[in-house]
Amino acid sequence: ATFGLPPVSGLTGLTSLLNGVTKMRVWQATPGRWRVDVLSDAGERDTYQLSGNRSFIWNSGSQLLTEVLGPQVYRLPRAADLVPPALAQRLLSEGGRQARFSVIAPVRVAGRSAAGLRMTPSDTASTIGRVDIWADPSSGLPLMVEVFGRGSGRPALQSLFFQVSPWHPDQRVLTPDRAPGTGFTVSNPGNLAGVLSNLGLVALPAELAGRIRLPVQPGFETIGAYGGGLTTFAVLGVRDSAGRHLVADAVTAGGTPLVIAGGAAAEISAPLLNAVIVKPPGFFVTFLLAGTVSTQVLEQAATQLTELVTLR
What we know:
- Helix content is 17%, strand content 41%.
- By secondary structure, it is an alpha+beta fold.
- The protein has a 6-stranded mixed sheet, with no helix packed on it.
- A hairpin with a 2-residue loop joins strand 14 (223-228) and strand 15 (231-239).
């Protein structure tokens, strides 16, 4: 991945996933039961997905096993999301019926001749210019996925298998085994709803930049998601105590300073992902807008949001 995201405290796992090379080892028994290990020189971080809503994360560096109980309605991207089959399925689903499809030349991946399919999003506001997928013709298993930013001839994200074997993994491999002397903790994803509600977000409008607000799960009303598919962006408001320095920090990290409707703002652009942070004048909330849409869409949404809260 070549997103070029700046390092962010507390999000090193995410930024490293989207910058540079991530090596993984994958076992998959069923769609809902699998294991993905992220390998590095310092050790490994293993994710186990068990049947139902139970999952475990093993961190060899801290010698800690964490059990995650319950469905994860909202979470950060993880390595398992970028395995070729999962990534291809997500992109094809989000591309929708309006996308254009064409056959592309086969290539050899993981020692196999893979058939190629190209998907081109229909909405030009998407940061994604095209998605190329190569799959095993006999099984349909995606072996390589390349995602290109709009107007770019180099993939911003490439995911491929180096080796593939069709066999059923041993259950012992798919179940975490806590060794003596290691730590153990339990996490509840539902805690995130409480954290977000404490940020002090004002009510968000039903429409921004010509895009309708999408329904959200109960408990997460403080998040605004607009658009849909490959042209979705999210909006989150951060109370002044937590968001006071966000605009300045974004500029320091390489963002472009802006003035939006009289408010201080910054724009951050990366392949496939754009963000705008705006602090309306005299208002106690800083807004973060980010997604796979053009900066023009985000600036328009930020302008409307700033004008709306200023009128209040």
